[in-house]
Automatic annotation (TrEMBL), chain A:
PANTHER family: SUCCINATE DEHYDROGENASE SUBUNIT 6, MITOCHONDRIAL. It comes from Dioscorea zingiberensis. This is Succinate dehydrogenase subunit 6, mitochondrial. InterPro entries: SDH6 (IPR034574). GO terms for cellular component: respiratory chain complex II (succinate dehydrogenase). It comes from the Eukaryota.
From TrEMBL, chain B:
Its main location: mitochondrion. The lineage of its organism: Eukaryota, Viridiplantae, Streptophyta, Embryophyta, Tracheophyta. This is Succinate dehydrogenase subunit 3. It comes from Dioscorea zingiberensis. The keyword Nucleotide-binding does not apply. Coiled coil: none annotated.
Amino acid sequence: MAEEMGFLRRHFEDVKEHWKSNFAYLDYYKKTLGRREPLPKWTDADVEEFIASDPVYGPQLKALRESKKYGIAGALLGAAHLGGVSWKYSKSPHGVVLATGFGAICGGFFGLEVAEHVNQLYKFDKQAANLRFLYWWEDKTLGNKHLASGAQQN
Amino acid sequence: MAFESNPAPARGFLSGTSLDRLRGKNSVTGTLTSHSSGPLYGSRPIHGSSVLSESAKGISSNRPLSPNLILKKPQLSATYSISHRIFGAALCTAILVTPVLMKFSVVYDV
């Protein structure tokens, strides 16, 4: 069998599984964004209900939600800092706007890094915590309906 | 005018430069300035002889820039160069923004 395949094909067969595992993280976006019809809207009360009901993934989702404010605080701090420096020293108005936006992005990113350590987000799979809630919400709202057509929908 | 009390964006683009002096007015307030004793119109220079800023001494304000893209015929090599830079910048942006979006999306329910 191996002799029949050309060099390129044999190489492809060798590395196929490796690249499949490299891109496995895209599965999360297929399950969250790639739905054929979107899930019904949920509120904060629904998320609180899930957090109270699930002993494993509830605390993880709670930590994720608490780390939101670190990102927002970091974004405000970064925007104020970089925007303030450019406001004082720059001669171009559009440069001030761009610098403020860039400061917000960098500050938000850094704020989430702080939250990662404060709330110990590195200990668990953040995508899995989100997916557990989505599955719980899907079961709660749609019941068994999604199982009938779930084969195509995934 | 070594030090300005207002920050530059508050003063406005190119305000306080020779362009304002050419126009004979302040671009922020819009008021006419009476910096010259003679008549304002008819005596102002067409080609500015005053400097744009301290760092660009000797450059007059209304010279045509080179290359003048309005006058130049578009050529394949120039078009390739321009589009090459545009696509390069877009690719760079996409590569830089993707991990940022992935990090934010996990926390902010996106």
